[in-house]
Amino acid sequence: MKNLFKRLFGKHKGVAPDTLSEAPTEFSLEEQNLNTLANAICDVGYWSWWVTELPELIQVEFGGTQLYFPPDDPLNHPSSQIAIRFKNPKSISFLTKRKLVEGAENWFDLLHQDKVEPITCDYDHFTFTDVKLMNEIIHQAETIQTIHGYSPRESSFMLDKYKLVFWAGDYGMAIAADELAVRSKEGFIELIQVPAIHSQWWEYWKRYWDAINTENPLPSNYACEVTIPIANFRLPNE
Question: Model-level pTM greater than 0.70?
Answer without folding.
Answer: yes
